[in-house]
Design goal:
This protein has 134 residues and is mostly helical. The chain is built from 5 helices and no strands.
């Protein structure tokens, strides 16, 4: 055993000692989670320098007699990279126009497709802007 003056924990900084103390108090499952998270954080720094490759939409073909709700599901699944909260308000308005005002489904679906297309263009522009600033 090492003499008390040579304990490795005394060579560590305050943050490292605190982390070791907290780590020691965790159960086995939590220790594994903390290690996995630390490894993620460690690799994240090196990945931030790599260029971001935009995701491409993978939209299923439009069926002949598609409902507005089915179109929303199809478009949401085909554009997984989009933040749906950004387009939710306009999409809800279009769906309400169909449901409450009787607007034809074909027209509403055309507009939903345009809405998702414009949102995707915004996604690409945001990536380009981030790349030019980074």
């Amino acid at each position: 055993m090492l003499p008390p003056t040579q304990l490795p924990s005394q060579q560590l900084g305050a943050e490292q000692r605190r982390l070791l103390k907290l780590f020691g108090a965790l159960g086995p499952g939590d220790k594994a989670s903390l290690l996995a998270f630390a490894e993620f954080l460690n690799t994240r720094g090196s990945e931030q320098d790599e260029p971001v490759v935009p995701q491409q939409p993978d939209v299923a073909p439009r069926p002949e007699h598609e409902s507005v709700v089915a179109a929303m599901r199809r478009l949401s699944a085909g554009y997984p990279m989009l933040d749906k909260s950004v387009i939710l308000h306009e999409a809800a308005g279009l769906m309400a126009a169909h449901t409450l005002q009787g607007r034809p489904a074909v027209e509403v679906i055309d507009e939903l497709e345009g809405l998702f297309g414009r949102a995707y263009q915004g996604y690409l522009e945001a990536l380009e802007k981030n790349e030019s600033q980074g």
